[in-house]
UniProtKB/TrEMBL annotation:
Keyword match Aminoacyl-tRNA synthetase: no
Xref: InterPro entries: GlpE_sulfurtransferase, Rhodanese-like_dom, Rhodanese-like_dom_sf
GO MF annotations, alphabetized: transferase activity
Name the record gives this protein: Rhodanese-related sulfurtransferase
Species: Thermus oshimai JL-2
Domain of life: Bacteria
Residues making up the signal peptide according to the UniProt record: 1-22
A Pfam family assignment: Rhodanese
């Protein structure tokens, strides 16, 4: 549970610059504290999925797979069917994402995926992040494409 809380705080701290780019609003210390309190009370299964659970979800539901890594990382290997929108472009391209189906987001090791999750949840999307990102996916010997 401590690891999830630390990851939630890290996600919040990393997401603030992304959120600031998407809006002209300045976040007050109270807002940041309240969002932080919200994130630290999330149930463990709310935030992320282990790679095997993400694969099972992909196999049983129609999901949108979002890779938020840089294009050169994406070109080096990816989860089959993934769409690449780098984290830095996500606020400008959020309209390209489907609202009507679950989104599974991932990055290299989980940090950018956490930022994307916080941002997209705030935009009303049903999104989960693969814990450990693409690295954990490949270590679990799940399918990849190049």
């Amino acid at each position: 549970m401590k690891g999830i809380r630390k990851l939630a705080w890290l996600g919040l701290l990393l997401a603030i610059p992304v959120l600031a780019q998407a809006t002209t609003t300045t976040f007050s210390a109270l807002t940041v504290r309240e969002v932080g309190n919200f994130l630290t009370t999330l149930p463990t299964d709310f935030y992320g999925l282990q790679p095997a659970a993400a694969k099972q979800m992909m196999d049983t539901l129609e999901v949108f797979i979002l890779d938020v890594r840089e294009p050169n990382e994406f070109a080096g290997g990816r989860i089959p069917g993934a769409v690449n929108i780098p984290i830095r472009d996500l606020p400008k391209r959020v309209g390209e994402l489907p609202k009507g189906k679950p989104i599974i987001v991932y990055c290299g090791i989980g940090h950018r995926g956490a930022m994307a999750l916080v941002f997209l949840r705030g935009q009303g999307y049903n999104v989960k992040s693969i814990l450990g990102g693409y690295k954990a996916w490949t270590e679990a010997k799940l399918p990849v494409e190049k």
